[in-house]
Amino acid sequence: MPHTTHTPFPDGFLWGGATAANQVEGAYAEGGKGLSVQDVMPRGIAGPRTERPTPDNLKLEAIDFYHRYADDIALFAEMGFKTYRFSIAWSRIFPNGDDAEPNEEGLAFYDRVLDELERHGIEPLVTISHYETPLHLAETYDGWVSRDLIGFYERYARTLFERYGSRVRYWLTFNEINSLVHAPFMSGGIDTPQEELSEKSLYQAMHHELVASARATRIAHEIAPDARIGCMVLSMPIYPLTPSPDDALAVMESDHANLVYGDVHTRGRYPGYFLRTLREKGIELDITDEDLQDLGNTVDFVSFSYYMSAAETADPAKRAAGDGNIMGGVPNPTLESSEWGWQIDPVGLRIVLNQFWDRWQKPLFVVENGLGAKDELVEVDGRKTVVDDYRIAYLNDHLVQVGEAIADGVEVLGYTTWGCIDIVSASTAQLSKRYGFVYVDRNDDGSGTLERYRKKSFDWYAEVIRTNGASLTAAR
């Protein structure tokens, strides 16, 4: 394949990678950390929770980033990362979530992480809450169903801004906030079993998170005026399964359910279609005048994850849920799928970038994209590695589409691949579902040395960053 002779990626484009604390740190009971909902989810999203941590939960040790962060950040720097997206574990800072004072040992850990990033010239991009609600808040308050969590989150966010506001410019308030209605325990710390949870409680939890996000945005701008605060949503372009107007209408309704979160974050109010949904369901939410005022604190940019697209139909006879897709929709017969049933659609990334830009007119940041696959560690020229040409092809084709969106006029701040080093999967809690440029020697049964090995994609991504995207090959 010939290389492009120019690149649409602007100077200063933030190339990098992304992880979440619960999937990399380990050390779940060290440094004064309290338990989070992840510590009792040994099987990921779909599996049952346990009362307390059990040895089969790979996240308890994860890849031991807590003790190996300096070496791992050095590997990111070797690839040339301009930015690294990571999350702060809420229960490291406030072990129970409702504590009066923060845990200094937890704060100091992230000081050390930031020290390493600064030493290597890597811009931090920090997620404040990434599926890591303190377990005490889930069990005592039923998570975000309770209005009390707005205050607890506000205290937590203010603590972070006061401690790190001069060191961190880019912040995300909640990870994939629109996943709340699909994964209420993981996303919102809601302890009530999903089958017993009312729609009103779910929508009330959604409202509380949106208010908390808006408050955090205001506080960040007060404490750190140069900070840029973004929301983070799970994106999924949806296509009509047939040309039927009824299928097109089904797409619109699915889009509305997914986009309402971004609409509120960027416009500062609930859209009419959502208010209609509440009316028709007979749901009246507890929304105060102060809440409505708070929502007016809109974000500076929109970040999102992109893994797949879906199709939609109004015909119940054609409805069959796609594997691994928590957001609904039906499989698209024109697309291939990954080993975990996630449909692969690079063009969908260009589509969603244009959709979001046209809809919200806010700078965009692709903060998660990648291919989970079963990698095989082999020896090549005396070096252990993974020949992951499939990952290179996937990322290349998606990045080409990011470049096309930029050429379309979309303002894109940066791109961080998901799981830039192998991590424990959030959806399946497996290590064998690998995303990274760096192979971590740990297996689904917990065995392994935790040694790190550069994959073939490591050098490929380093070249993409070095050339600011000029080394990407044209779409096939």
Automatic annotation (TrEMBL):
Keyword Hydrolase recorded: yes
Cross-referenced Pfam families: Glyco_hydro_1
UniProt source species:
Microbacterium betulae
- Please give the biological process terms from Gene Ontology that the record holds: carbohydrate catabolic process
Q: Please, which domain of life does this record's source organism belong to?
A: Bacteria
A GO MF annotation of the entry reads: beta-glucosidase activity
State the name under which the record lists this protein: Glycoside hydrolase family 1 protein
Per the Swiss-Prot or TrEMBL record, the active site comprises E368
Q: What is the lineage of its organism?
A: Bacteria, Bacillati, Actinomycetota, Actinomycetes, Micrococcales
Q: Does the keyword Hydrolase apply?
A: yes
Q: Which UniProt keywords apply?
A: Glycosidase, Hydrolase
Cellular-component GO terms for this entry = cytosol
Indicate the family of this protein: Belongs to the glycosyl hydrolase 1 family.
Gene3D superfamilies the record matches = Glycosidases
PROSITE patterns, alphabetically? GLYCOSYL_HYDROL_F1_1, GLYCOSYL_HYDROL_F1_2
